[in-house]
From TrEMBL:
Its cofactor is Zn(2+). This is Enoyl reductase (ER) domain-containing protein. InterPro entries: ADH-like_C (IPR013149), ADH-like_N (IPR013154), ADH_Zn_CS (IPR002328), ER (IPR020843), GroES-like_sf (IPR011032), NAD(P)-bd_dom_sf (IPR036291), SDH-like (IPR045306). Belongs to the zinc-containing alcohol dehydrogenase family. GO terms for molecular function: oxidoreductase activity, acting on the CH-OH group of donors, NAD or NADP as acceptor; zinc ion binding. Keywords: Metal-binding, NAD, Oxidoreductase, Zinc. It comes from Gossypium mustelinum.
């Protein structure tokens, strides 16, 4: 049984025929599946950027579970192992995969990205090399949180975050908050986070932000807000800004608030096209870098969680079972936002 996205705002729990188990595959009983913003976006619009849902699709990609069966060539896992699943399968034949940048493989098969089915299911079949064993002190929910945390870890690697990097985070949603946690674990000495919502800023405070700034949605407020951000950050200024929202205003603010010679990393992709003040940023040699998904992050994420350097448990605010009613309620809760940060299914 799986959660099918069958139409606009319509999810149905219905049967699904599992693919055969290949020699290098494992069959996993799903135990924890989180709802991502992209899942909600597909539900509400049936598309995300260039990905369009044209036929019924199984939803979900943040997941962890228990190995039930292994293929004949699998050596590193056994039935009963608790694992976190990396949801994207590169082709391993293209130049990008051969260079190690499989996250931007043009032929990637990624859970719940049309036409590939996702993991909000009782069971899935997945390559064993993309299933990572969890240590005893981590829960399956924490295993599922390795997926959003991987986005933040990949962003911190791309931006070279370290002990001399002051960080600004635009947006205190789930990805903004895990980016705060990851930047702290990478050694950033000062992290300021910005949002329009008081509750989410209070969560950021509790998670260890060095400063928070409440902003508006009005473009004309940018100069005043940049001034406040710089005051809160301090004299050294912002070395790296992570835009975890991806709107005209957040990107414009990020470019304006980042010091000369700094970097702006695009993490959130709220709008396909944005209009931003590039010329002043170029004159200050502010670099703009993008990220898409992640690569080779699960071992580090698991170690950061195992060691206690990152604690994602406070981000899991709502839990639901796997009935038709609860699936509908869970997605409504996630879409509503507010005090719902990470909504998790316990299967």
């Amino acid at each position: 049984m799986v959660a099918w996205l069958v139409g606009l705002n319509t999810l149905k729990i219905q049967p699904f025929k599992l693919p055969p188990l290949g020699p290098h595959d494992v069959r996993v009983r799903m135990k924890a599946v989180g709802i991502c913003g992209s899942d909600v976006h597909f539900l509400k619009t049936l598309r995300l950027a260039d990905f369009v849902v044209k036929e019924p699709m199984v939803i979900g990609h943040e997941c962890a579970g228990i190995i039930e069966e292994i293929g004949s060539e699998v050596k590193n896992l056994v039935p009963g192992d608790r694992v976190a699943l990396e949801p994207g399968i590169g082709c391993w034949r293209c130049d990008l995969c051969k260079e190690g940048r499989y996250n931007i493989c043009p032929d990637m098969k990624f859970f719940a990205t049309p036409p590939i089915h996702g993991s909000l299911a009782r069971q899935v079949v997945h390559p064993a090399d993309l299933c990572f064993k969890l240590p005893d002190n981590l829960s399956l929910e924490e295993g599922a949180m390795c997926e959003p945390l991987s986005v933040a870890v990949h962003a911190c690697r791309r931006a070279n975050i370290g002990p001399e990097t002051n960080v600004l985070v635009m947006g205190a949603g789930p990805i903004g908050l895990v980016t705060l946690l990851a930047a702290h674990a990478f050694g950033a000495p000062r992290i300021v986070i910005v949002d329009v919502d008081d509750y989410r800023l209070s969560v950021a405070n509790n998670l260890g932000a060095d400063g928070v700034v409440k902003v508006s949605t009005n473009m004309q407020d940018i100069p005043e807000e940049v001034e406040r951000i710089c005051e809160v950050m301090g004299a050294v200024g912002v070395h790296v800004t992570f835009d975890c929202a991806g709107f005209n205003k957040t990107m414009s603010t990020a470019l304006s608030a980042t010091r000369a010679g700094g970097k702006v990393c695009l993490v959130g992709l709220g709008h396909n096209e944005v209009t931003v003040p590039l010329t002043p940023a170029a004159a200050r040699e502010v670099d703009i870098i993008g990220i898409f998904r992640y690569k080779n992050t699960w071992p580090l994420c698991i170690e950061l969680l195992r060691s206690g350097k990152i604690d994602v448990k406070p981000l899991i605010t709502h839990r639901f079972g796997f009935s038709q009613k609860e699936v509908e309620e869970a997605f409504e809760t996630s879409a509503r936002g507010g005090d719902a940060i990470k909504v998790m299914f316990n299967l």
